[in-house]
Design a protein that fits this description.
Layout: H1 6-13, H2 15-19, E1 24-25, H3 30-40, E2 45-48, E3 53-55, H4 56-61, E4 65-71, H5 79-93, E5 101-107, H6 115-124, E6 131-136, H7 138-147, H8 155-159, E7 167-172, E8 177-182, H9 187-195
Parallel strand pairs: 4-5, 5-6
Antiparallel strand pairs: 1-8, 2-3, 2-6, 4-7, 7-8
Helix pairs in contact: 5-9
């Protein structure tokens, strides 16, 4: 499959069609921040590639700057290219990953991608600290995928995991800034894009 699929094109030039209600800056109050959480960040239980149980919002998203994408280990489409590209991004960001910025990749095939499989995948691609691969119950993964806008309006394409979207959702949860970029975009441009939402975050709970 070529890099420039219909879905990658949508991600690159039509973010508003994918982002839904969490695109761009929401200058709302804490009450509205909670409404955004309830609408877009279901606190489902997942397992990391280190076989640790975590909650999606409370443990992974709350109070952080994050990047989130969907993939699966045996993907022959965009996944390997996006993973390799994000490894370059991780290297450019350096020690900030795992400190100020956190990266998450969620398996679209949790029935295949056990924590052990995801750990092997991460190791094979040279993934460093601060980047977590996640699996879980299929219904929870599907809920996350739809809530985060990683879906196609065409139900036939949406059901075909080999044609899954190549977007990466990114955001600053405390500031309520959310958008997306194409996973195959130039690494330096991605780092610059992340800097647009990089404002001081209170570490208080």
């Amino acid at each position: 499959m070529t890099d420039l699929t219909r879905r990658n094109l949508l991600a690159a030039v039509g973010l508003s069609s994918l982002a839904g209600p969490i695109l761009a800056h929401d200058s709302a109050s804490d009450r509205e921040r909670e409404a955004i959480r309830l609408r877009n960040f279901p606190d489902v239980v997942l397992r990391t590639h280190e076989n640790k149980k975590v909650r999606f919002y409370e443990d992974l998203i709350k109070g952080k700057i994050v990047m989130i994408n969907f993939m699966y280990a045996r993907c022959e489409g965009v996944c390997p290219g996006i993973t390799s590209n994000l490894v370059r991004v991780q290297k450019l960001l350096g020690d900030r990953v795992g400190s100020d910025i956190f990266m998450y990749s969620i398996s679209l095939k949790p029935e295949e991608d056990t924590p052990k499989v995801l750990k092997q995948y991460a190791r094979a691609h040279g993934v460093g600290r601060g980047w977590t691969f996640l699996t879980g119950a299929l219904e929870d993964i599907e809920t996350l995928r739809r809530k985060l806008g990683a879906r196609d309006p065409d139900p036939l394409l949406d059901a075909d995991k080999s044609q899954h979207t190549g977007i990466v959702r990114y955001g600053n949860e405390p500031q309520r800034w959310w958008a997306a970029f194409a996973g195959l975009a130039h690494p330096k441009w991605i780092v610059e894009t992340i800097s647009w939402i990089d404002t001081p975050i209170s570490r208080s709970p």
